[in-house]
Write a structure and sequence with these properties.
The complex is a heterodimer. Chain A has a single domain (53-493), classed as Ribonucleotide Reductase, subunit A (Orthogonal Bundle), CATH 1.10.620.20. Chain A contains 22 helices and two strands. Chain A has helices at residues 6-14, 25-28, 31-34, 55-77, 87-117, 121-147, 157-160, 167-181, 185-215, 218-234, 238-247, 251-280, 290-309, 317-323, 327-337, 352-361, 365-381, 406-411, 435-443, 445-448, 454-459, 468-474, and strands at residues 421-425, 428-432. A two-stranded antiparallel sheet of chain A has the order 1-2. In chain A, strand 1 and strand 2 form a beta hairpin. In chain A, helix 9 (185-215) runs parallel beside helix 12. The longest helix of chain A has 31 residues, at 87-117. Chain A is globular, with a radius of gyration of 23 Å. The relative contact order of chain A is 0.10. Chain B has one domain (2-103): Rieske Iron-sulfur Protein (3-layer Sandwich), CATH 2.102.10.10. Helices cover 0% and strands 46% of the residues of chain B. In chain B, strand 5 (56-58) and strand 6 form a beta hairpin. Chain B is globular, with a radius of gyration of 13 Å. Chain B starts with a strand and ends in a 12-residue tail after the last strand. The chains are: A mainly alpha, B mainly beta. Chain A binds chain B through residues 6-7, 50-52, 61, 198, 202, 206, 229, 232-233, 235-236, 239, 301, 304-305, and chain B through 47-48, 66-69, 80-84, 112-115. Bound molecules: FE2/S2 (inorganic) cluster (FES) and fe (ii) ion. Residues 397, 399-400, 402, 432-434, 437 of chain A line the site of fe (ii) ion (FE2). Chain B: Keywords: 2Fe-2S, Iron, Iron-sulfur, Metal-binding.
Chain lengths: 496, 115
């Protein structure tokens, strides 16, 4: 039989469309689940994914990837490779698994929702592969850290983190519930695949895989590249979706969805990638600073996308660019101060050499943040470890759920007032870290109003006793699981 | 304006082979296709910047190892996705010598496609 080329059969095999005779459009594609109703059904036929794949090819590729990655894991698992890794890098890996493995699995819900409620057959087809991708990513990123359990008892936080009320989990869960667990198909395409995956994670995974190889973590490096190849394929759902939306006169709505999620993605990135790149990754293996990464990759990518689709930069663009200089440094300080409350060992990353690097990459770092670390260093040197643990808890933002660090913003010259921003909704006061977080909340308060931040839980008596011990227990951390300084304070004694 | 550069000989690049060469800031993919046809394209994948010389060449079609995008190296056109073509440099063969013409316009010679 002659072999047909893909273009001869692909559309026919993919486009399962028909006209409904017995049911209404709205019953098949309820707006809450589909979100595509602004655009007439026929217009969605223009949806086309650039990279085509058949089920047979998909399965073949995935089997090849799994075989390679799992056999590498087996080989590495028998070696001493993990023991020899830099302690800060181990923190990158342990933090990553806890924060990312379950969200990848949950992303399969969002993909499956597009696979059912996407308004074009081509879209549903691509999303079906995306669903399988995300199930795979959830499983492989739970399985690999379980293999580390003998060496790293918190490897099981890959599964456990999302079943606790740890404060990092609250932030990540709030974000991903908003982005894909409780989001309609159209918004998932624009917010998960266009804004987060195309805009941030595809680029970050490339960098992370390269760093992993550089520090000698072959297992993590091969895992991350094997995931990134899937992400790059299913992330392509975003562009055709935003194109159909804009071609049909709904640019403003597309812009709103992008603006909403770009800020949230930035917040999560500052927390996870910012700390990893600028503090946890060993100095010798840092190819660029977090700020350079965001400027050279994320900003450039978004500038291209905005230009191609006639979108504008989000209204808070200046505030975002401004935060590149200070926000993640402030969050790092909080995470380190409260190191027992996270499931990885926080790496201070402020040895004399590292401080020099920070000042070089972020002129003014010493003035805004160095002073605080001077005090901590002194306390460690004089054996006053107790002094390095704060006694009160920071206030969490009612949108991003991260600590409000405006005081550090004042030190860095970005804000004039350290007070949280406020908004009253149905008699309840909500507090925010930034104008964009408040804006996201107030545009759709009913979406967010019922959620309690960790601070709210403390104040309303959900956490008992309302002190540090009670909080740590509430967060699901047994004493053996408390994070400690990754380098056992070597940085304070000028060693590293 | 552009300059011709000797970059390789047919001894270095057998039929069915691809190779990467650098001319100034340009990274260039050379391909020797069936029938003594030599082509030169951007060396870095327009998708996510993997090196195309690491890809698999099957007949005229090169598959990038990054995310399996396919390019027809006879024409530079994308096969999958089809909306993405490679930047092409003119090639001259004199005897065994392969020369490539690189524009001296100070601009990047490089297409980029997202996906
Ligand atoms: S980098 Fe070549 S296909 Fe993605
Ligand atoms: Fe916030």
């Amino acid at each position: 039989m002659p072999k047909l080329s893909r273009s001869d059969w692909y559309d026919l095999a993919r486009d399962m469309n028909w006209t409904f005779g017995y049911v209404n459009e709205a019953d098949v594609f309820p707006e809450e689940l589909s979100g595509t109703g602004r655009v007439p059904p026929e217009a969605w036929l223009a949806w086309d994914e650039p990279y085509k794949i058949s089920y047979r090819e998909y399965v073949h590729n995935q089997v090849t990837k799994d075989t390679t990655t799992y056999s590498l894991k087996n080989a590495v698992g028998r070696s001493k490779l993990f023991d020899q890794l830099d302690p800060g890098w181990k923190s990158v890996v342990v933090a990553h698994y806890g924060a990312i493995a379950m969200p990848e699995y949950l992303a399969s819900f969002g993909e499956a929702r597009m696979g059912r409620f996407g308004r074009a057959a081509a879209w549903r087809n691509t999303a079906t592969f995306g669903t399988l991708d995300e199930v795979r990513h959830g499983q492989i990123q739970t399985f690999f850290p379980y293999g580390l359990l003998g060496k790293e008892p918190r490897g099981d936080w890959a599964l456990k983190a999302f079943h606790t009320n740890n404060w990092i989990t609250l932030a990540v869960r709030h974000l991903f519930d908003d982005m894909f667990v409780a989001n309609d198909a159209l918004s998932v395409a624009i917010q998960l695949t266009f804004t987060l995956e195309t805009g941030f994670t595809n680029l970050q995974f490339l960098g992370m895989a390269a760093d992993a190889i550089d520090v000698g973590d072959l297992e993590f490096g091969s895992l991350i590249s094997s995931i990134q190849t899937d992400e790059a394929r299913h992330a392509q759902q975003g562009e055709p979706t935003i194109k159909v939306l804009i071609d049909n006169g709904h640019k403003e709505y597309g812009q709103f969805l992008v603006d909403h999620m770009f800020w949230r993605a930035w917040r999560a990135f500052a927390l996870l990638t910012g700390l990893s790149m600028d503090y946890y990754t060993p100095l010798d293996s840092r190819k660029m600073s977090f700020k350079e990464f965001i400027q050279d990759w994320v900003v450039k990518q978004f500038a291209d996308q905005f230009r191609d689709y006639g979108l504008d930069f989000p209204w808070y663009w200046d505030e975002f660019i401004n935060e590149l200089d200070w926000y993640h440094h402030a969050i790092h300080t909080v995470v380190w101060n409260y190191r027992p409350s996270v499931w990885w060992n926080s790496d201070a990353g402020v040895s004399p050499k590292e401080r020099q690097w920070l000042e070089e990459k972020y002129p003014g770092w010493n003035r805004a943040f160095g002073k605080h670390w001077d005090v901590l260093t002194e306390n460690v040197r004089t054996g006053n470890l107790a002094e390095t643990f704060p006694e009160t808890l920071p206030v969490a933002c009612n949108l991003c759920q991260l600590p409000i660090v405006r005081a550090a913003g004042v030190l860095a010259g970005a804000h004039t007032d350290p007070a949280p921003l406020r908004h009253v909704h149905n008699g309840r006061v909500y507090q925010f870290c930034s104008e964009p977080c408040r804006w996201i909340f107030t545009r759709r308060p009913e979406r967010f109003a019922g959620h309690k931040s960790i601070t709210d839980r403390l104040w309303t008596g959900d956490i008992n006793p309302p002190n540090i011990g009670g909080v740590l227990a509430y967060m699901g951390l047994s004493e053996a699981e408390h994070g400690v300084d990754a380098d056992n304070y070597a940085w304070a004694n000028g060693k590293h | 304006m552009s300059d011709w550069h000797d970059v390789a000989t047919l001894d270095d690049l057998w039929e069915g082979d691809v190779a990467e060469v650098a001319v100034g800031p340009d990274t260039i993919l050379l391909a020797h296709l069936p029938g003594r046809q030599v082509r030169a394209y951007q060396g870095i994948c327009p998708h996510s910047e993997y090196s195309l010389a690491g890809g698999d060449l099957d007949g005229d079609v090169l598959t990038c190892t990054g995310h399996l995008w396919e390019f027809d190296l006879r024409t530079g056109e994308g096969v999958n996705p089809s909306n993405c073509r490679l930047y092409e440099y003119p090639v001259r063969l004199s005897g065994e010598q392969i020369a490539v013409s690189v524009p001296t316009d100070g601009r990047p010679h490089y297409n980029r496609c997202r996906g």
